[in-house]
Amino acid sequence: MFSIFGRIDRLSRFGFGLLVFLILLGLIGPYLPLGDPMRIGAGPRLSSPSWLFPFGTDELGRSFLPRVVDGIRATFLLSAVAVIITAIIGTLLGMVAGFFGGVADQVVARGADILFSFPAILAGLLIAAVMGPGQISAIAVISVATLPLFIRVVRSVTLGLASRGFIVAAQVAGASPWRVMIVHILPNIIGAVIVQLTYALSIGMIIESALSFLGLGGQAPYASLGSLLRQGSAYLTFAPWLVLSSGAVLSAAIMAVNLTGDAVRDALEPLKGRSLT
To answer: Taxonomically, which superkingdom (predicted)?
Structure first.
């Protein structure tokens, strides 16, 4: 573990530390003395940041800091659930396409191209029209947007492994195709999957925030960073701290995820990682 971190540059370490801090803040936020995010009239309406209310208050007099902390947890959790589900499905489909080839490869690859052609916002409008706005719709949209990325990456890596000697030897020894994929191919592509998962998480957070900003994500009293941005945008001219605080936290979270993805990539590619430091 320490040798891996020794190959990571300082900026990536900062991103990893920031990501850990934000995740821990989101998880333990309800147990910290930050105030009740749902308490109406905790302070003056739309008051500016102060020692008592570091992020100010919203239009109902609720302290905005605990609401932002709730938003961190909601955005991370929803995006992570969607991306993990997508990673499992995309890895399976990518291995099937790359290993079997032929009709299976054509069907999976063309299906990924079709999904890739849909803009995330358009897919969100279509899914929300069918399923209604909410967290399930947001998970579906994130899955539709990130699934082609997983399929393409896993398919490409699997194609490069399918003709390797140890794969051919396993097939000659009588191993079934599924055993070959699970026992021999999956361990060799897991690094690429993890790297893609980190980048897909940042994409998922952007999509979730955009959907919530448009009112297609989680609904009140559910709070995410995107819904807090939408809430603050109505008072931007005389209470800009609502947008600035939630927007800054969202930007920091996405930056931290991307920097962590770079760190994971450099750790899995030592030569490339040393050339960048």
So the answer is: Bacteria
Token representation of residue 138:
């947001």
What single letter denotes the amino acid at residue 152? R
Its pTM stands at 0.84
Which one-letter amino acid corresponds to residue 88? I
Residue 45 is given by DSSP the state T
Contact 105, 97 (CB under 8 A): yes
Cβ-based neighbours of 86, under 8 Å, separated by 6 or more:
142, 143, 146, 147, 150, 200
153-176, pLDDT tens digit by residue? 999 999 888 878 888 888 888 888
Number of Cβ within a 10 Å radius of residue 48: 13
What domains appear along the chain, each with residue ranges and CATH number?
63-276 (1.10.3720.10)
